[in-house]
Amino acid sequence: xxxxxxxxxxxxxxxxxxxxxxxxxxxxxxxxxxxxxxxxxxxxxxxxxxxxxxxxxxxxxxxxxxxxxxxxxxxxxxxxxxxxxxxxxxxxxxxxxxxxxxxxxxxxxxxxxxxxxxxxxxxxxxxxxxxxxxxxxxxxxxxxxxxxxxxxxxxxxxxxxxxxxxxxxxxxxxxxxxxxxxxxxxxxxxxxxxxxxxxxxxxxxxxxxxxxxxxxxxxxxxxxxxxxxxxxxxxxxxxxxxxxxxxxxxxxxxxxxxxxxxxxxxxxxxxxxxxxxxxxxxxxxxxxxxxxxxxxxxxxxxxxxxxxxxxxxxxxxxxxxxxxxxxxxxxxxxxxxxxxxxxxxxxxxxxxxxxxxxxx
Length: 360
Ligand code: SAH
Fold this sequence. Notes:
By secondary structure, the protein is an alpha/beta fold. 37% of the residues lie in helices and 24% in strands.
């Protein structure tokens, strides 16, 4: 972790010198998934950003409740004898392992489900293989378009925040796109006139100085999942940090060595993410014909799925220390100042399905 420019920084400086500034989305994509220097292509990406621990790693209850959600959706679908259970960005594979363990209450579920994982990181694919040892049959896909042509239940936790965003700023002279260019021989932010208004519903209400973000990659994936679901049946559940009401602001953030970092300081050596625009995902899913539910907070999702009961069951007969760690995990996942409110849940389905936690 030296402060010398990273290999990717040198690469980007050459590229920008030759071809001109790049968008924030292109910069994020290079930092995260560049074939040799991308953060997710390196060893153990989740270990390096360390103490920003994700919900499935906080407690087994998280994945278990997602597993129960999937079983209820499968029941509502009429228990099809073949379907795909897909996870996008499965990390260490913990959530899928916990979900499948809980789903064993319905023996036909695992037999019918083809487990499909979308994962870019070789190191995390290896971790997923280890977590899913003993699971009969799972495979990886390279792209959402490679999902099998069967009904689909899709789940994703903290996947969409890793997808590249473009950023637009309202200036005196109209909209401009924020770019990464060169500054004193290194990387620096700049603006390029966006030519008219960016394709955003917000554009009209934005004052000078306002910034809006959009993620064509995230919307594209939501649209593809929704198209599958509308055509073949099923549902998707997306959990992440982000905003339900479109807002203005720069949410690009870098985490390196357990601390926030300057997003331009260590390309390829820091985790980059942006808050998820749930309204944009919802609109994309609706445009593809899925029935989209209003976004709810993670706390509401977990409470409606029975986290209190699950915690009580786990704590039953345990020592004081174990009981307090279970309580601490519930607080961390649902507390309003912890993950409960910042993290949201979005679900959409084919027509006529009732979704637990979203439809009363
Ligand atoms: N869901 C896990 C991991 C979250 S981190 C958890 O909650 O712990 C983000 C995950 O998405 C990682 O597995 C990462 O490798 C994967 N990922 C990020 N960008 C990706 C992309 N463009 N294509 C496929 N997987 C991606």
